[in-house]
Amino acid sequence: DHVLVLGYGDLTEPILEELAARHGVEYAVVTTDETAARRLSERDIPVFTADPSDVEPLERVNLAGARAVVVATEDDARDALAILTARQLNPGVRIVAAATQRENVNKLRRAGADQVISPTTLGGHILIDCAFGADSTDATTDLLGGALDDVTDLDDATDSDDAADLDDATGSDDAADLDDATVSDHTSN
Amino acid sequence: DHVLVLGYGDLTEPILEELAARHGVEYAVVTTDETAARRLSERDIPVFTADPSDVEPLERVNLAGARAVVVATEDDARDALAILTARQLNPGVRIVAAATQRENVNKLRRAGADQVISPTTLGGHILIDCAFGADSTDATTDLLGGALDDVTDLDDATDSDDAADLDDATGSDDAADLDDATVSDHTSN
Lengths: 189, 189
Ligand SMILES: [Ca+2]
Ligand SMILES: [Ca+2]
Known about the structure:
Number of strands of chain A: 7
Low-confidence stretches of chain A: 134-142, 145-182
Largest sheet of chain A: 7 strands, mixed
Strand content of chain A: 5-15%
Bound molecules: calcium ion
Oligomer: homodimer
Radius of gyration of chain A: 18 Å
Order of helices and strands of chain A: EHEHEHEHEHEHHHHE
Structural class of chain A: alpha/beta
């Protein structure tokens, strides 16, 4: 019932922070990057220095018993291989991935990922939303609130006009379109 | 009343798509990247091959009359310089930026950006939200709906259970915390 993080890249530290914030969730990283692996193990984060697209290391970290697999390095081709191996070893596990190049979103899906995001597409959306001002701060807050709906142990008050803004957002008809562009969901069948 | 895109990087194409989707919005790119500039002008996108941290090119693209400035390349130091120049030339213009390295979010704010996002932090959040399944697709849809609340010319119906999901999201108290981590708002005074 643990989460496996395959590969090490720019998104890995934010991913590990998110996992650390979810109390009680166990996780481990598999990467060929020896420098990253050493730094992680100095911070007591379980890490296996091995190729995450090889069968043996994924068996060693008990992929068969994993809750989810997160695949997000700058090398989409290696990500695709890791996804293929993970899917082969565990047909039912939830696999999520980040496509560094937007044109690879569908390839990572076809490799077996359940959901694939494009951080650059997402970043462009949010940045332009912010550029058009006024509502945008609230829209972004909504967005971040929505992205992290499981964390409930903080004391700061949430800005209470988010609901009205969301109403605007869902009033528009673009969700399906954006879903195509940025997040690719494979499992809603 | 136009939008200026300063520099060319991984986020620029998503940014230009967002701008193109907002009918009636005029925009121009300023970049030293000659290959990118040639490709953009082949697509009839107004582009100026010049350093966006120099005063003269920003005067030429009428920064004084701009509605907003978007700064998002992989080089945060150059982004900081472009922000400093833009802010100097137009104290009132809205400036938004993307920090490639998360630790630069506050530096880009101090350089004069009104809002700074960290696409990697955002990507990590969303990916882990997706990894934990179930609600996450909806949370991501909320999030994307929120990020693009101005586009209203599409016909697809929006999934109507978004509102309930947002309720969950805003019910938690993490928005202020996340705001620190991922989006930095300078102007709410
Ligand atoms: Ca990738
Ligand atoms: Ca940057």
